[in-house]
Design goal:
- The protein is α/β, with parallel strands linked by helices.
- It has 12 helices and 20 strands.
- The chain has helices at about 15-25, 75-90, 110-120, 135-140, 155-175, 180-195, 205-215, 245-250, 285-290, 310-320, 360-365, 390-405; strands at about 5-10, 30-35, 40-45, 50-55, 65-70, 75, 95-100, 105, 200, 215-220, 260-265, 270, 305, 310, 325-330, 340-350, 350-355, 365-375, 405-410, 420.
- The strands form 5 sheets. It has a 10-stranded mixed beta sheet with strand order 9-7-5-2-10-1-11-15-19-20, with helices on both faces. Strands 14, 16, 17 and 18 form a 4-stranded mixed beta sheet that branches. It has a two-stranded antiparallel ribbon with strand order 3-4.
- A hairpin with a 2-residue loop joins strand 16 and strand 17 (about 350-355).
- The longest helix has 21 residues, at about 155-175.
- It is globular, with a radius of gyration of 22 Å.
- It comes from Candidatus Tidjanibacter faecipullorum.
- GO terms for molecular function: adenylosuccinate synthase activity; GTP binding; magnesium ion binding.
- Belongs to the adenylosuccinate synthetase family.
């Protein structure tokens, strides 16, 4: 029995991880968010309702699931309180939430510094959400960050905040920004600590205890492997690692406890923000896919860039993140196209390559080499088994498995939980 499952985005994020996490969470005892912050959203739909989550784990809708925000996250307490209030206003009041006392805190100066730094980059902006995630991670590794557990000790928090503001106010001045008040931040965050204090604990102990009991534990990340700080399209990446490899460090468990990894990918490719995108489409096909797939950012509302599926990217993420199975999302969006394409390799300076270059100039020069396949006209949003698919759609799935050497375990043919076809049992 595989009791620990990691849900990983295999592209540039926005692949539909929220739905897959929610789907498998129905079988889980614990759902753990292991990195990122409120810069990445998950959209979940069930019972005719649509919920947009930013920091809260996807199991929050089930009162029996323990939802963990682990130490690898950067937590914005203002955002968490707001998110909980929104959920409670919509009737989600019975839940179990645990926040790591070791998780870094996103402070008010982080978002200001994030926006100021982006504005100075001119035409070379990274495309951050300006929510302070990068600066919060920078402070964590610079050892001047504040952690969630600090908010429970007023004297210690005051000391840490004073030390941080000595540095941060100088940085703000360098960008021409107003200094921030110790008293204002201290009062606000002590109140936030009081409101969230009942959730703050050593989540590593909790997760390990659940593992020892034989509980089913689901780990969910934010963004996708192509936005990994180490293995993504650097510098157009996030400030943490969404790979399954980062789960032990980011949650406080041993590597041997990661049983199974399911990679979530769209039946095509999207990306938000700047950076190279070899299979990017323009024109009518891109517009149709964007509108049919509602390809706009959950957090920012930004229109997503759209392209054909890229098997080079999938093989890269398989290698660096150990993908065992794929969940193929928004498969129904491709219905109605005369032909569909999959990128199988790149042409770089006149030679064929099947791996991703490390540098942006090389990746920008990569031209996609496609295999072209017949499309299908049928509406597949109501199918509930692989056998019900049109033959052309079946062939598309088989070609993905052939090119990536990964079995497709899940097909999603619509946003609702019920529009999910399970091909292999992974959890």
């Amino acid at each position: 029995m595989k009791n620990r499952l990691v849900v990983v985005g295999t592209q540039w994020g926005d692949e539909g991880k929220g739905k897959i996490t929610d789907y498998f969470a129905q079988q889980a005892d614990v759902v753990v968010r292991y990195q990122g912050g409120n810069n990445a959203g998950h959209t979940i739909e069930f019972g005719g309702q649509r919920y947009a989550l930013q920091s809260i784990p996807s199991g929050i809708f089930n009162p029996h699931i323990k939802n963990v925000m682990a130490n690898g996250m950067v937590v914005n307490p203002v955002s968490v309180v707001s998110e909980l209030e929104t959920l409670e206003s919509r009737g989600v009041k019975d839940y179990k939430l645990f926040i790591s006392d070791r998780a870094a805190v996103v402070m008010p100066y982080h978002s200001v510094l994030d926006g100021a730094a982006e504005s100075l980059k001119g035409g070379k902006q990274i495309g951050t959400t300006k929510k302070g995630i990068g600066p919060a991670y920078s402070d964590k590794y610079d050892r001047i960050g504040i952690r969630m557990g600090d908010l429970l000790d007023g004297d210690y928090f005051a000391s840490r905040l004073r030390d941080a503001l000595e540095i941060k106010n100088r940085e703000l001045a360098m960008y021409g920004c107003e200094p921030m008040s110790f008293d204002t931040i201290y009062a606000q965050y002590m109140e936030l600590g009081r409101r969230l204090g009942k959730y703050i604990c050593d989540t590593s102990v909790l997760i390990n205890e659940e593992i020892e009991k034989g509980s089913r534990v689901l780990f969910e990340g934010a963004q996708g492997v192509m936005l990994c700080i180490d293995h993504g399209t650097y510098p157009y990446v996030t400030s943490s690692s969404p790979t399954a490899s980062s789960v032990p460090q980011n949650t406080g468990i041993a590597p041997r406890y990661v049983d199974n990894v399911i990679g979530v990918c769209k039946a095509y490719t999207t990306r938000v923000g700047e950076g190279p995108f070899p299979t990017e489409l323009e024109g009518e096909i891109a517009h149709n896919i964007r509108e049919r797939g509602h390809e706009y950012g959950t957090v920012t509302g930004r229109p997503r860039r759209v392209g054909w599926l890229d098997a080079v990217v999938l093989n890269h993420t398989r290698r660096v993140s150990g993908i065992d199975y794929l969940a193929l999302m928004l498969f129904d969006v491709l219905s109605g196209l005369d032909t569909v394409k999959i990128c199988v390799a790149y042409e770089l300076d006149g030679r064929r390559i099947e791996t991703m270059p490390a540098t942006i100039p090389q990746f920008e020069r990569c031209k996609p080499i496609y295999v072209e396949m017949p499309g299908w006209k049928e509406d597949i949003s109501g199918i509930r088994s692989f056998d019900e698919l049109p033959e052309a759609a079946k062939n598309y799935v088989r070609k993905i498995e052939e090119l990536t050497r990964i079995k497709v375990a899940v097909l999603s043919v619509g946003p609702d939980r019920t529009q999910t076809v399970l091909l292999h049992d992974v959890f």
